[in-house]
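request received
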Amino acid sequence: MASYCSALITAPDTRMWTTAVDEDTMKKNLLLFKKLICGALIAGTAFITGCGMGGDGSATQADQATTITVYSSRKEHLLKPLFDQYTAETGVQIRYITDKAGALIQRLRAEGATTPADMLITVDVGNLWQATELGLLQPTESTTLDANIPAELRESENRWVGLSVRARTMVYSTDRVTEGELTTYEALAADTWSDRLCLRTSKKVYNQSLVASMIDTLGAEQTETVVRGWVDNLATAPFSNDTKAMEAVMAGQCDVTIVNTYYFGRLKKKQPDAALALFWPNQADRGVHINVSGGGITKHAKQPEAARKLLEWLSSPEAQRKLAENNQEYPANGGVKPSAEVASWGEFKADAMHVEAAGRLQAEAVKLMDRAGYL
Amino acid sequence: MWQLPTLMTAALVLMPITVIFLSWGSDQTEIWQHLIETQLGRLLKNTLFLLLGVGIWVMLLGVSLAWLVALCEFPGRRYLDWALMLPLAIPTYVVAFVALGLMTYSGPLHSLIRATFGEDAWFPDIRGPIGVIAVMTCVLYPYVYMLARSAFLSQGRNLMDASRLLGVSPWRSFFRVALPMARPAIAAGTSLALMETLADFGAVAVFNYDTFTTAIYKSWFGFFSLTAAAQLASLLLLFVALALYTEQRARGDGRLHQNPRRQQSERYQLRGSRAWLASGYCSVVVLVAFLVPVLQLLAWVWETRAQDINEIYWKLVAHTFSLGGMASLIAVTLALLVAYHQRLQKRHHNNTTERLATLGYALPGSVLAVGIMLAFASIDAGVINPVRQWLGLAPAQILLGSLFALVLAYVVRFFSVAFGPIQSGFARIKPSYQEAAQMLGSSHWQVLKRIYVPLLTPGIFTALLLVFVDTMKEMPATLLLRPFGWDTLAVRIYEMTSEGEWERAALPALTLVLISIPPVVIMIRRSRAVS
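response:
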């Protein structure tokens, strides 16, 4: 393509312009104007033929055969080790960009059939649901995926497949809370927790999914009562992240909060003697709220076969172990044990995934939290 | 032909704005109803309070510091002169996070106070409007400082001296003579700061302080409605356009030209306690707005043992540097041409086209980024690919995902950052210089090259630096539009912070700051030499 390009740039018609301008002895302004036009023409031609891009953007036909393109809202430092290993094992190159899920989904939409992306990787089932709903992902038939990942952690036609599981549970102060005090998410709305609760902001998708799953099981009315109870019990305004909320519990500003387990793992790694512990709520009924990070093959993938192989590899025990350990999450592959650290938090009964709820009910959950004054 | 750059810039900015306004074609009543019922009142109140607070404080800080540094002499002035500019290099969300870390209940300050004065000791929680205003002011006052400083420098003290010889008191002279003359610069700086406040999402998100942008993001990420988000953003844009227009109207038609000849006037020598007060004041600002955040960043880099310094890291630095360079050169060149065109028409107001061209800065970054992306995608689909087809090539993404598109996006976003300093520079130059040169037979290019560019040097350097630093810090457009492999330091900061790993974000953040220091120092040196 590059040679085609340079041929076009030096093609007779554009050169004629240049020489014509050079020989022009008319007014300088006119000369300059022509130069501008000429420059625009050359630049335009370059763009249309695709060599004005520079960088690594212009993959040639030859290496496209072995290059998979990934759009990911999982971060580079979590994915790159895995991708590097895959490249080392198979010779298949993987290039990727990372961004927020919402932005990547919009980009996929805008690009349509010309998208370079073969795979979308993102966190939160609501985002995966949204990408599926917009028709951005294609079904994948794969016995490997079916065998590796339990059915409840993937879309019915494998339009997306869960790659790791995260649990959103409670963290409490071991100094000021006795274990018997904690029971369910709903119970945190009771008066006994007045001025003892800390929460992360309702603008975070993890809380939106949690509330959506509650709407799914309890109904909107009862959920709103619970959320209002939480808001009444807040010891301080909601925090912008889980870590800050746990630090507030440590400092004594409040006694309990709701966080994703891996944030707890990270905090414990830094401060092993922090007087905090995990609690698994709702063990007598529906179980702990879980969510997934996952991936799917794009509708207009140029390399659907290669992308499928990569997805299958990501679901394999070896990759699963690494993927989960990188961020202290739970492997989606049922045959893979979580890391020793994660396993030490104990086993728990997980709530079924509320895929529909996370997707369709997310907007309702946001509205509900707005009405309840949960900032 | 001199209107070509103006038209080009306006067209460029118009692309994403059109995309955003097109959103009104679709009905989003449900979301609007919900927002009006539960959110908008509170958000508007929050936003106005924030704008008011930041506006007042950046003006107070920026103008007072600029005056001291430009026209007074006191211990340490030579260093404070450039050090006061440095907070600009730290991304707002980084300062926000550092402030939050130090000043919340669980932070070291609170803990110390509780340990000393007992559990019930009161200390203000920074997670309120006061904290957000303080943080924004710390990061944004340099816009006003920078522009006011070069205005004061080129004013010199001649007119002040004249006023005082006529028996007007020093303070009164300042308010009646020096300040009005610097007004275009102060207004340009303040409006940059306010536009950035209005568009900010990072810092307010760290504080969980809801503003109008919160509604935009909520519509997009919470309600999955980019359309409603775009509608909200377009309202924001209208508001800014109106505010800018009003400011220009209020400024009136007064012309403030001055002798651009080098004015080697002496600075006011401050003595005794006043001198120390001046150095103390400037030093405290540098300490709070720059040194404390940087020390915290250093501590974090130390904590993580600089584990991320490797080949990838150096690549990030190189990308960041070259993107900043490209964007600032292009934006400043365009700004110069547009301002010159304005000058040719002997106008002192921005006309519609120019006003349009400067609107990009007021949009929340993510919304602008999506607007640009959609515009580029439709050019790919509607113009480039038909031509490619005609040439017998397969359709592909050419514009979208190219380096060119990313740089264009920066230009769209930061054009007004470049335009402000250059325009206010032009405003201070007498038109008679140009008239004389043209009478002597100079062409427009010669006038621009031999008269305006040298006279405008401080303004041009200010513009280059501002765009350079802003581009390096820019996050949403870089994330969405960068070509494969073109990760920058800002991208790395995003990846770490969005996972809550602030300690590991410290290295790229600190690097951004370090990269920005040499250009700041050079700029100040140059502007000293010229003014």
